[in-house]
Amino acid sequence: MADETRWGDTHPAPERRAALRLVAGDAAHQDSEERTATTAPQSAPSDSPVADPLRPKVPVIAILRAPSAERFAEVAAVLQESGITAVEFTLNSAGALDALRECAGFAHPVGAGTVLTAADAARAVAAGAAYLITPAVIEEVIAEGRRLGVPVLSGALTPTEIHRAWTLGSSMVKVFPAAVGGPDYIKAVRAPLPDIPLVPTGGVGLREARAYLDAGAAALGIGSPLLGDACAGGDLDALRERALVLRDQLS
């Protein structure tokens, strides 16, 4: 990674990776019941939607997106240590697959986001992704996730898209971009579709997080309001403080 001494100021790369795994493992030991995602592939597709993969104590999926994924593993370890155990590495960040491999020892496995093709899905799962997240209803990704036995959180916006994503086999449905309608939209959609777990994503700020959950969201996808500049070399202590505040607000 670009800044090998950033973690603990003195750790060379191999020791830093071990430290990352230890931190994630300590967090998992405290909250082991939160482990609902799995990387183990199945040999045949499921006949029903894969079970919800992300039901952690803190209902947040942290979205890591940056020009480079060099710092993703380190940031994910800080988030998991702080109680944010669901983390998404976006595939349009250079080096995302390598970052997924670096998290192989994490007790809370991470997922891959911005998955656009079946080939992307297969590569992400091979690299260690425990779940797949798309920005839209992409049938081939949902089908590939089902074939591999890996949950897919499909992006959708309209009630028609949300229902289609669910019936195709999405484990949960990412309402994107959520800021278009806000919490009131989530509440309105849930009235006729109460059994579909919705994950508002896109423009969800820390101050609005509770309102989305009160409107019926199952979880929230949060990017820059939580991550800030941490993925690009920013202050990890500031990230830790934001994560702890969010955790306390939503737990």
Provide tags for this entry.
disordered N terminus; alpha/beta; 39% helix; 251 residues; 4-stranded parallel beta sheet; 10 helices; globular; 8 strands
- DSSP strand (E) fraction? 5-15%
What is the structural class?
alpha/beta
- pLDDT < 50 runs, ≥5 residues: 1-19, 21-53
State the oligomer. single chain
Largest sheet: 4 strands, parallel
Give the H and E element order: HEHEHEHEHEHEHEHEHH
Over the alpha carbons, how many angstroms does the gyration radius reach?
A: 17 Å
SS summary, helix count: 10
Strand order of the largest sheet: 3-2-1-8
* Overall pLDDT: 84
Q: Would you count the extended β strands for me?
A: 8
N→C terminal distance: 33 Å
Shape: globular
Helix content: 25-40%
Task: Note the topology.
Elements: H1 13-30, E1 60-64, H2 72-81, E2 86-90, H3 96-102, E3 111-113, H4 118-127, E4 132-133, H5 139-148, E5 152-156, H6 159-168, E6 172-175, H7 182-190, E7 198-200, H8 209-214, E8 220-222, H9 224-227, H10 236-250
Parallel strand pairs: 1-2, 1-8, 2-3, 4-5, 5-6, 6-7
Tell me what you see in this structure:
This protein is of the alpha/beta class and 251 residues long. It contains ten helices and eight strands. The protein has helices at residues 13-30, 72-81, 96-102, 118-127, 139-148, 159-168, 182-190, 209-214, 224-227, 236-250, and strands spanning 60-64, 86-90, 111-113, 132-133, 152-156, 172-175, 198-200, 220-222. It has a four-stranded parallel sheet with strand order 3-2-1-8. It has a four-stranded parallel sheet with strand order 4-5-6-7. Strand 2 (86-90), helix 3 (96-102) and strand 3 form a beta-alpha-beta unit. The longest helix has 18 residues, at 13-30. The radius of gyration is 17 Å and the shape is globular.
